[in-house]
């Protein structure tokens, strides 16, 4: 009985070794840069971190497909290096001797990439799935609804237009009053008065003015 159990385990181990190896079908390589990401707060990559990675991949697979029965034991790691890099595959839970198609694994990882990154305090640059393209950051939603932003912009334009009309009206009114005042002053300077039916210029009170009628009478008399 014990011999049969050991034989079974060895067969499973050999099968798993064939499934998980560099460039194997449906296998993915992972490269982790903990020191780069966390500096002095970097943690050591050990068996506990490997268990957490397997758990997160199993979680991603189960969340990707509600009918999935993927367990932690279905996630296999191999060729783990000190730098930290390794390969992994996900085996079919029903057969356990074949791997889940790479397209499904990729879709599950992409769907849950932020959750996986958060579990290890890393990001897409420091936790790299080399055959899986980086996920795009979710679009940032504005704190205010779009319609409210549009309404605010339109309201500002209306207010600015009203202020412009008021200011321009005041300026035109001031300009009109100034032109009217200048015109009145000019009319006062050139104003003529009528005396005895004869138009006469306004007298210059400071310099005096010689009446042309009397000047003509004086010229008729010959000086002695």
Could you characterize the architecture of this molecule?
- There is one protein chain.
- This protein is 50% helix and 13% strand.
- It is built from 7 helices and 6 strands.
- It has helices at residues 2-19, 34-38, 47-64, 102-111, 113-119, 146-189, 212-220, and strands spanning 28-32, 75-81, 85-90, 127-129, 192-195, 198-201.
- The strands form 2 sheets. It has a 4-stranded antiparallel beta sheet with strand order 2-3-1-4, sandwiched between helices. Strands 5-6 form a two-stranded antiparallel sheet.
- Helix 3 (47-64) crosses helix 4 (102-111).
- This is TMM27 protein.
- InterPro entries: Collectrin, Collectrin_dom.
- Residues 1-17 form the signal peptide.
What's the architecture of the domain at 15-129, going by CATH? Answer: 2-Layer Sandwich
Low-confidence stretches: 4-14
From the N-terminal CA to the C-terminal CA, the straight-line distance is 172 Å
Shape: rod-shaped
Give average pLDDT, whole number.
79
How many extended strands? 6
Question: Helix/strand/pairing class, anyone?
Answer: alpha+beta
What proportion strand?
5-15%
| Rg (C-alpha, Å) | 49 Å
Question: What is the highest CATH level, the class of the domain at 15-129?
Answer: Alpha Beta
Helicity, as a percent range: 40-55%
Count of runs of 4 or more consecutive helical residues: 7
Along the chain, the helix and strand elements come as HEHHEEHHEHEEH
- Please list the strands of the largest sheet in the order they lie side by side: 2-3-1-4
Strand count, sense and barrel status of the largest sheet are: 4 strands, antiparallel
CATH topology of the domain at 15-129: Alpha-Beta Plaits
Signal peptide: 1-17
Main location: membrane
InterPro entries: Collectrin, Collectrin_dom
Keywords: Cell membrane, Glycoprotein, Membrane, Phosphoprotein, Signal, Transmembrane, Transmembrane helix
């Amino acid at each position: 009985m014990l011999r049969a159990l050991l034989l079974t385990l060895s067969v499973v181990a050999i099968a798993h070794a064939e499934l998980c190896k560099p460039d194997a079908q449906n296998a993915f390589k992972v490269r982790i840069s903990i020191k780069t990401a966390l500096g002095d707060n970097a943690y050591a990559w050990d068996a506990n971190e490997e268990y957490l990675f397997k758990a997160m991949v199993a979680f991603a697979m189960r969340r990707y497909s509600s009918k999935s029965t993927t367990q932690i034991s279905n996630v296999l790691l191999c060729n783990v290096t000190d730098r930290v890099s390794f390969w992994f595959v996900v085996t079919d839970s029903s057969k356990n001797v074949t791997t889940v198609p790479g397209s499904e694994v990729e879709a599950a990882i992409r769907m849950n990439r932020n959750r996986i990154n958060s579990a290890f305090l890393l990001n897409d640059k420091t936790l790299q799935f080399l055959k899986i393209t980086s996920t795009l950051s979710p679009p940032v939603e504005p704190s205010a609804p779009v319609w409210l932003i549009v309404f605010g912009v339109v309201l500002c334009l209306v207010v600015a237009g009203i202020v412009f009309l008021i200011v321009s009206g005041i300026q035109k009114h001031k300009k009109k009053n100034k032109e009217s005042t200048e015109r009145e002053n000019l009319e006062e300077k050139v104003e003529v008065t009528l005396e005895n039916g004869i138009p006469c210029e306004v007298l210059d009170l400071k310099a005096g003015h010689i009446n042309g009628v009397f000047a003509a009478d004086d010229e008729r008399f010959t000086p002695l």
